[in-house]
Task: structure prediction
Amino acid sequence: MGLGSGSRPGPPPVEVRLLRNGLGESVHRVHAVVCDQRGRLLMRAGDGQHASFIRSALKPFQAQTFVSSGALDAYGGGERAMAIACASHDGGVDKARESFQLLWRADVDISFLRCPVPKGKDSPLQHNCSGKHAAFLASCRRMGWPLEGYLELDHPVQQELCHRVAELLGLPQAELMSACDDCGAPTLKLPLSQMALLFAHLGAGSMPNLERLARSMQAHPELVAGEGRFDTELMRRGLSMLVSKGGAEGIQCIARVGEGIGLAIKVEDGAGRAKWAVALHLLKQLDWLTPTALEELEQRFLIPMEGQRLEVVGELR
Result:
C-alpha cells in the first residue's frame, strides 16, 4: 500500500482553525486517508502512514468474536446487543441496561466486569466501554474460556480478536503492536492506512459478521454514542450509507456501506473538536452527505459556543 516514490511532496495535512469572533486563536493539524477494501490508498491529506492507537474505533472489530463464537445467537439480544458491544456510550440508564442484559443472558455475574467505575457513578455498567466488556465475557462463556483475566493480551478472547484483525489487514499477528486502553482492554497502534482498510472491510458487506455489526450500529445509533454525540448524529443522517466510530485522542473512522471504502482521521494534538470538523469537511468533499444533513451537523459541531467557529483548510487529494 505504497504512497508513491521519489521526492515529490505529498498533500499537506488539513488544518482546523478555531476562530473567536472571526480572529484566529488555535490551530490543529490533521492527517486523513481514504482506502478501499483491497488496501488501495485512494486519497489522503498529510501522512497516510501516520501511526496512532486506534482506541475505541477498534470496537466493531473487537466485537467480531461475540458474533463469530455464536454467543450473540446463543444468548440473544440481536441488533441492540451488537450495537452496545460496539459502543462508546454516554453511560445513560438505557445503555447500562443493555450491557447488563447482555451479561444476564449469558449468565455472567456483573462482578466479572473489569472496566472502571466512572467518576461520580455507581457501577462499571455506566462506563462507556461496558458493552464491549460484556461482549468479551459473553464470548468467553460461550467458548468455555476463563472469565477471569479476559483483558490480558494472552487471554484467548484477546488473541482471537488480534488474529481476526491481522487477517483483515493481511499481516502476521506478531506484527500488531498493542497497549492498554483507558478501560483496561488492549488497543492497537496502526497507521492510518490500516485503520481505513479495516473500515473499508466493515462497510463492504462481503463478510457476514462484519456486515451484521455495521447494520446494528446503523439500526441503533443512539446506543453507539448517545444523543448529540457525533457518531450517533452522523449515522442518523447518513441515509444508511455510513458507519461512524470515533476514538479518543483525535481518532475518527467512517465506512461507506456497500462500497467498501473507509476513511480514517487523526488529529495530531488529539483534539476531538478538530476530528469532527475535518470529518464533516471531508464528507462534503466526498459527497457522502446530503446538503441538509451536512448543514445540520455543521451547526452542531462547527460552533463550539457562541462567538466561536471552527474553520477547516485543506482537502483530500
Observations:
- The CA atoms of residues 131 and 257 lie 23 Å apart.
- Residues 1-7 have pLDDT under 50 and may be disordered.
- The first helix runs from residue 59 to 62.
- The chain has 13 helices and ten strands.
